[in-house]
Design a protein that fits this description.
Layout lengths: L12 E9 L17 H12 L3 E5 H7 L8 H9 L7 E5 L19 E5 L5 H8 L4 E4 L7 H12 L3 E4 L3 H9 L5 E7 L27 E8 L2 E7 L23
Parallel strand pairs: 1-6, 1-7, 2-3, 2-6, 3-4, 4-5
Antiparallel strand pairs: 7-9, 8-9
Bound molecules: NADP nicotinamide-adenine-dinucleotide phosphate (NAP).
NADP nicotinamide-adenine-dinucleotide phosphate (NAP) binds next to β1, α2 and α6.
């Protein structure tokens, strides 16, 4: 999908994809609304997944959205196989304290391996319970959880070359602070949610000084109807070959 070289030989390319309201929110403050993009945005999400070997999400996102983290259907399966990828993405859930729910809907969808990343400080009873469900549990060598080591493990042990990250803001923030994000795909949607506590694309701890903030290059903007699709890249480079936009439709983002 992309001609950009990996920034480090020992970890995969990392892309983040998020839909954001015009006031910078990724869900309402009650978190009851988290799906607000158009069908075009939904297709964009699956196109990005199609260009990745693995998908990485924080525990709360997967619980709250009930996502299965699928590949988008038969056409995308065929594309993945044509491109030499596994038919479905390897699914990785980050849950430092192993609080990820054993009742999450994700566990009902067994079309590809589900891996869990935990910190060495995670309570052993929780980890043991999740081990009975997950295909693999990777324990970070240090606490707090070392995301770079996790990505390196994905590359070395599972041959993962490209990772798509789909939030939430807590996980994104840790990845930004560790400078592990190569591309940010942002869909700006024509809604205002408001709410001081409504999540944003990067919550968590954040930075205190401009010098510590990650800067990105805006390499593409594309308006389709009322949405703007933005691509930021950490280092300038060749554009990824995304498929042409599909016709617009009513404003909903499909359950993923
Ligand atoms: N609009 C969009 O495109 C979009 C996309 C995704 C999500 N969202 C929304 O975002 C919200 C969820 O975001 P969130 O920030 O609350 O949750 P999140 O990042 O999805 O998950 C947070 C949890 O993931 C684990 N985690 C994340 N980073 C970690 C790290 N560096 N080390 C160890 N564990 C880590 C922790 O699990 P433990 O508690 O087990 O330690 C943490 O409590 C939801 O409302 C969702 O709907 C919107």
């Amino acid at each position: 999908m992309s001609a950009i070289p990996p920034p480090a030989p020992d970890r995969p390319i990392v892309r983040v994809n998020m839909a954001m309201t015009a006031d910078g929110k990724i869900a309402t403050s009650t978190r009851s609304v988290h799906t607000f993009g158009s069908p075009r945005d939904g297709r964009h999400l699956y196109q990005l997944r199609a260009g990745a070997d693995a998908i990485l999400c924080g525990a709360r996102t997967v619980e709250e959205t009930g996502a299965s983290l699928g590949n988008g259907g038969d056409a995308f399966t065929r594309k993945r196989v044509r491109d030499g990828r596994a038919s479905h993405l390897l699914r990785v859930i980050v849950s430092g304290s192993a609080s990820f729910s054993p009742r999450a809907a994700l566990w009902n969808h067994r079309f590809s391996p589900i891996h869990l990343w935990v910190a060495p400080t995670a309570p052993t009873n929780r980890v043991a319970r999740l081990r009975t469900l997950a295909d693999d549990v990777w324990t970070s060598p240090v606490a707090p959880l070392d995301l770079r080591a996790g990505l390196e493990h994905l590359a070395a042990a599972h041959g993962i070359r490209t990772v798509i990250v789909e939030g939430g803001g807590g996980l994104n923030d840790a990845l930004f602070r560790a400078d592990l994000i190569d591309e940010v795909h942002l869909t700006l949607c024509p809604w205002i949610f408001g709410g001081r506590t409504a999540p944003t694309i990067s919550d968590g701890i954040g930075v205190q000084h401009l010098a510590d903030a990650r800067s990105f290059h805006l390499v593409r903007t594309r308006r389709i109807d009322e949405e703007i699709f933005l691509l930021y890249r950490r280092t300038p480079g060749e554009l990824p070959a995304l498929t042409p936009p599909s016709p617009p439709g009513p404003r909903r983002r499909p359950a993923a």
